[in-house]
């Protein structure tokens, strides 16, 4: 079996394993729970498919984790973490700053397990697989 076949099998296996489990995100709001700060308590890591959101009328599958951080000059930061079913940016994890002179809000979207812990997002699985491919190519050249 050549290295390309091995790489292909590893990639297919990785995507099969990662897609066979429901997405897990941190789900909490710091207005109601002080353990939702930064970082959130592990007890807030939830299986998104076990949750019900009233505005998800069609029962779409969960695809993203969301984090909203609201900075108030009088109350400090407030955190809202949840699961989401609509990607605002299909190809990358992203954060958007909402400019408001009275309340600054940063809205983040990420696509990997438990990635909504902080405003900066963790690398996606794609980055992981790129490093695997580079390692296999490098080992082949060294043979």
From TrEMBL:
It comes from Galendromus occidentalis (western predatory mite). The keyword Glycoprotein applies. The keyword Signal applies. It comes from the Eukaryota. Keywords: Glycoprotein, Signal. GO terms for biological process: regulation of synaptic transmission, cholinergic; sleep. This is Uncharacterized protein LOC100905489. Residues 1-22 form the signal peptide. Pfam families: QVR (PF17064).
